[in-house]
């Protein structure tokens, strides 16, 4: 029986989850990502004196399959429950949340679970895939950094945001391009702020309403972090979309002013990040998509509901379905 070769574009949680399932069935899998690390939006930024999670802030677990995966992460020390004090903020007033959900974070950073998943996976970083082409019956990848890559694949999986996937897929698969086109992703302007002295806010994170922000959090309230007084403040999707073309310096000035109204203190150092594809506008029910004729497939949180759990489940379900298809075809 010939071992099928599968290429995955995107080393976020979805791509790594899918790779893990396929490797467990004996397939030859290689993962490619434009970044210097794995994890996608489960990201962590490091500065000289401080660091913080500036993408996904935490995750929850409800689906039995992901609960089982989470238990493995907890057992291996790459995730812990976050028992921070989380409140609501509306009309300038903070109020206690009545029902606290169990929230988890990667330890010592949100990237930890992704790094754990990637341990036994061939991941090629700093490879920005710009094009795919068929060479007889095999797929080849073309990257911005290396040109045409030497590997040839029986199947290609796109585990990246829909706009990026559609651009690469192009006319190769009308059905997958249409699915990508129909998914509307919302952006998120994010402020990263460092304070030499701790803020006098008596909570660790807040869901914000009637404000530029939708979420603010003190990063060192999470387990495994040091004592650097760093805060993340994520703008709400509506404001981010309206201001997506704003110059970075202008966006930074606005967000700093708004955060200072909440914190009462100017930050000692700050930076800004625009996540262009942060959140799916309308939750979906599709776990993945496959075009069996072209041997191309899609997975990602954006097919479900933009959460870490959704990303992992999408990759998990696609990996299992491809195992069934490819083993049957042999």
Verbal overview:
- With 330 residues, the protein is of the alpha/beta class.
- Helices cover 28% and strands 31% of the residues.
- The chain contains eight helices and 20 strands.
- It has helices at 13-24, 64-75, 112-117, 162-169, 174-182, 237-242, 248-263, 308-329; strands at 5-9, 28-32, 44-46, 51-53, 79-81, 86-90, 93-96, 104-106, 122-124, 129-135, 138-143, 147-148, 155-158, 185-195, 205-208, 213-218, 229-235, 269-280, 288-291, 296-299.
- Helix 1 (13-24) runs parallel beside helix 8 (308-329) and helix 4 (162-169) packs antiparallel against helix 5 (174-182).
- The longest helix is centred in the last third of the chain and has 22 residues, at 308-329.
- The termini are close together.
- The mean pLDDT is 94.
Fold blueprint:
Layout: E1 5-9, H1 13-24, E2 28-32, E3 44-46, E4 51-53, H2 64-75, E5 79-81, E6 86-90, E7 93-96, E8 104-106, H3 112-117, E9 122-124, E10 129-135, E11 138-143, E12 147-148, E13 155-158, H4 162-169, H5 174-182, E14 185-195, E15 205-208, E16 213-218, E17 229-235, H6 237-242, H7 248-263, E18 269-280, E19 288-291, E20 296-299, H8 308-329
Parallel strand pairs: 1-2, 1-13, 2-9, 6-15, 13-20
Antiparallel strand pairs: 3-4, 5-8, 6-7, 10-11, 11-12, 14-17, 14-18, 15-16, 16-17, 19-20
Helix pairs in contact: 1-8, 4-5
